[in-house]
Amino acid sequence: MSDEPQIPVSPDDETEIPESHPRYESLLTRHRIEHGVDLGITSRQGLIAQGRGEAYDYLLGERTIESADDAARAATAQFLLADHPVVSVNGNVAALVPGEVVELADVTGAEIEVNLFNRTKERMERIAAHLREHGAEDVKGLAGDGEIPGLDHARATVDADGIGAADAVLVPLEDGDRAEALAAMGKAEIVIDLNPLSRSAQAASVPIVDNIIRAVPNVARHARELRDADESELRAIVDSFDADAALAAAEETIRRGE
To answer: How far does CA 237 lie from the centroid of its chain?
Structure first.
């Protein structure tokens, strides 16, 4: 038998990566992105984006810092207050946390919409099917009958009754110019991004500087805790959240390494 380490053949086969391995989550996450490319739901550029995010996570200590947890709680309150919340999903999100996204949408009453920079009909359909396999009943994005003003690429294309009509949008992973465009439309925007200096984090109403594999389940956990809260309590959580302070705390953690 070879002494070479064996790589799992599917993202659900974790048996060959021991949980005691100090890089367990990192190795599993990389494999899920790679598997997403094989499935045709993640673009090859997504591999680069994953590596960039992993570097920031390493600097954050690969943990959810206090300011990120506070942001997740504020994000939950924002979503529960919204009349029409939507979770935007790209290829990396679909590969990394498909079941977690479905759970989050279920507990908050949000819709799920696929939105891609490298948009093709086949890839859109594959991602939608992948989400349905993980429990989603309805996935938007395929109609593409709406548009985000100010963008000249495929991410401008949205469903008119999805992101187009949303009053709150969760945008996991860095989304740059679309984050700014959504903010310009007056939508409450929640961004999950490991880089506190990115345009998406800077433009967000609620920036969550955390790894998506921790952040999405964390928002869902807060939602289960807050779903019976009254409007005044939820509003107080949102109003007391300071986005600039949260970003500054994340940057300080990265700089100090503590």
So the answer is: 21
User: 181 lies in which domain range?
Assistant: 66-252
In a domain, 17, yes or no: no
Q: What is the CA angle 120-136-54, rounded to 5?
A: 65
Q: What's the total number of domains in the chain?
A: 1
Task: Return the percentage of the chain with pLDDT > 70, whole number.
Answer: 87
Q: Report yes or no: 169 and 187 within 8 Å, Cβ to Cβ.
A: yes
Which residues does 87 contact at the CB level (< 8 Å), separation at least 6?
101, 104, 105, 110, 111, 112, 113, 169, 170, 172
Instruction: Convert the pLDDT of each residue in 232-255 to its tens digit.
Output: 999 999 999 999 999 999 999 999
Residue 18 lies in a domain: no
Tell me the H-state helices in the chain.
24-39, 45-59, 66-81, 91-96, 98-108, 121-133, 176-184, 199-203, 212-226, 231-240, 243-256
Taking 60 as the threshold, does the pLDDT of residue 90 lie above it?
yes
Handedness of CA 247, 236, 170, 134 (dihedral sign): positive
Residue with tokens 């690429």: 153
Residue 72 lies in a domain: yes
pTM value?
Answer: 0.87
Report helix, strand or coil for 163. Answer: helix
**Alpha-carbon dihedral angle through residues 29, 33, 34, 37, given to the nearest 10 degrees:** 170
What CATH number is attached to the domain comprising 187?
3.40.50.12640
